[in-house]
Amino acid sequence: DLSSGKVFVIExxxxxxxxxxxxxxxxxxxxxxxxxxxxxYVKSEKAPPKAAADEVQVVVGSTFNEIVMDPTKDxxxxxxxxxxxxxxxxxxxxxxxxxxxxxxxxxxxAKMDATAN
Length: 117
Hints:
Layout (H helix, E strand, L loop, with lengths): L6 E4 L5 E4 L6 H9 L22 E2 L5 H5 L5 E7 L4 H16 L6 E7 L4
Parallel strand pairs: 3-5, 4-5
Antiparallel strand pairs: 1-2
């Protein structure tokens, strides 16, 4: 939709690339994209600070690969919706689990708002 100033392009590997006027001209952006130099768009809230060892780590779209896909860590992640009653009822258990496993350096207890990321 050119009227909104955004263009989405879907690449063969299911990645989204978004053009905005702040990135220069459309021609410049298309050139970057064709040279595989454009950054993929990831829906994401602002990245939060790293959690303490005894806390649940909040993951967002931009930190998902870094935290969840880290091959040196075992990550137990809850993908939740803030309005979900079942998700809300799990929160105290998740916090308890994080405290219980705080000495396990290779284990991360995490959560991500699936409606915003």
